[in-house]
Task: structure prediction
Amino acid sequence: MSYLRPVKLQPPRLEVCASLSWSHYVLSLLRQHRHFFSDHICLRSLRQVLGDHLARHIPHTLEEELFHRGLSLLSREVWQQGDPLIPDMYVLYMFVFYKADMKQLEVPSLARHADRVTVLDLLYNLGTPHGHQVTMAKLKMFSSPNISIEESYLVKRVLRGFMHLRSLVLWKAADDAMLQIIGLTCRTLESIDLWKSIKATDLGVRHLLGLEAQSNSRLCKTLSRVMIRDTGVTDEGAYSLLLHCPVLESLEFSHGSFIKQFLDRIEESYVRTHRTFPLRSMFLPVLTEDSMYSVVSSFPHLEELSIWTTLRHLPADLTQEHLSRVTSLKVGGLSHPSILTGLHAIIGPQINVLKIETVHFDVNIEVVGAECSGLEELSIINARVGVTPSTEKMAFPPVKLFPKLSKVYFFLVSYLPSPVPLPRPPHSVHAPSSLPVPSTGYTALHTVLTHGTQLETVQVTGTPAMTDSCLEEILGRNPLVHLRKLVISNPGTGDSPMVVPLTARSVLLLHRKCPLLQCVGDLRHWAVSPPQRSSLASQVAGSPAVQQAVWTKVRIPSSCRARPRHTSVLLQRETETDGWRLKVPEPTVRL
Result:
C-alpha cells in the first residue's frame, strides 16, 4: 500500500537505548552458545555470571523490565531450526534470565518437543518449593491439542506453582485434570483463556468451580472473564459458569457450537425464575421477539450488545430500562430497517460505538448521525449507505450531526449518491477531479467528513464522487484539525478497479490544513502516479529525505510539526535538521 507518513526523528530515552544495547549483546552471546548440552553446564555458567552482574549493577525493580525488553527483541527474529539438536533461542534466554519472583510470563509457540520439555522442567524446578510470583501467565507453546503424556504431566506440575495468578492463558493444552488443579491452586484467578483446548469439557468446568466438592471453589467469587472458544465445553458448562460466578462479566465461546441451546437455557430460566446474570457483553442471534425480550432481560448490566436477527420489529415490551447501560451496539443480518430504527429510538443517544454489518437495506447516514448524537466510533461493513434527498430535508429542522465522532471505518460499502443539483456542472473528461460538484452526486462520505468536527481516524472505501474540489470545499467548512489518519481505499472490485479522483493537490491540501495528520493513503487507489508518490515528500516538506520501500510506503519528514519520539528509518546521508545531525537516505522507488 502507499501511505504518506512523517519520519520519526527523535531518539528514544537514554535508559531505553542502554537496555536495548545490552539486550542485543546478550542475545549475540547466547547465539554463540546455541548448541546442545545434556546437563546444561554452559547455560548454568552463563546464568550465574550474568545473574551476579545484574544483582550488582541493576536495581531489582528494573530487572524484570530488562527481561521483557530482551524477549521483545527476540520475538522479532526468525530462527531456522535446521539441526534437531539446536534449541530455540527462547529456551536459552529463559534458562539464563527467568526468575521465579517475576510477575509476568509468556511462553510462545515452540516447535520442538525437547524445547517444550526443557522450559516446563525449568519452570517446575524454579518454582519448587515456594512457587512463582507470576500474576499473568501466557502458555502458548503447543502447536496442537494432542500433546504428549510427558508434556501433560509437566504442565500439571508447573500449574501447581502458580499460586498468585490473576490471568492465565493456556492454549490447546488444558484438560479436565488441569482445570481441577487450577481451581485448587489459583485462588485469585480473574481471567482464564482455554482457546482450542478440546480436552477441556463440562466436567472440567465443574472441577474448576469445585461443584463436585463439598464447597465451591474460591474462583466462583473471583472469575470475571472466561474464554472457552473451540473447546469441549457445551452449553451445560457455559451455563454453570453463569450460574455460579456472580462477578462474571465476559464469557466468550464459539457462536456456532451451542449458542441456541445456551440461549434456550437462559430464556427458560428467566421465564421460570426471572434470574439475571452479570455479563456485560453478549452475542444474541434471535429468531423470535419473546426470546429476545427474555434474554435481554436476563442481562441488566449489558454494556456491549451484538444482535444478529431477521426480525422485523423489536419486542413491544423492550424499553430503555432493559438496555440502560448499553454503550456499544453491533447489528448484523438485518432484513428490515425498522429494528435498527427501534434501537436508535430506545438507546440512540447513549451509544458510543455503533457497528452495522451485512444489512439488507439502505442505511441513511444522516439519520444515524441525528439519532446517535453521542457516537464516537462508527463502523459499516458490507452495506449500502445513503443520505437524505435534499427535497425531504426541507420538512425537518437542521440538526448537528456527529458532534463527537472520532473514528470511522467503512468496508465494502456502496454509496448511494443524492440527486445532482440543477443545472448540472459541465463534464470534463480530462480533469474529473476539478469538478466543483461531483457528476454522481454527494454521498455519505461527504456528509461524514463535512460534519465530523472531532474526526481523528478515517479508514473508508472510496467513491468516484469524492474529487479534489469536494475535499477542498469540505476542508473549508470543517478543517479537520484533529485528523491523524485518512485512508481512502479502492472503491471497485474485480480486475478493473476504479480510481478515486483525488490527486496530489488533495495530499498537499491535507498537509496544509490538518496539523496533526500522520498518515494519508492508500495512494495506489488515488489519481497519483508512482513518480508523484516519490516526489510528494519534497513538495510537502521541502526536503529530499524520502524513502519508498517495496510496499510503496512513503515517509515524509515535517519540520513544521513537533518531533515524534523515535526514528524508524535507516539514515545514511548527513543533513542538518532542527539541530540534530542525521543521516538521510537518497530517494528510492521500488514498485
User: Anything to note?
Assistant: Residues 542-591 have pLDDT under 50 and may be disordered.
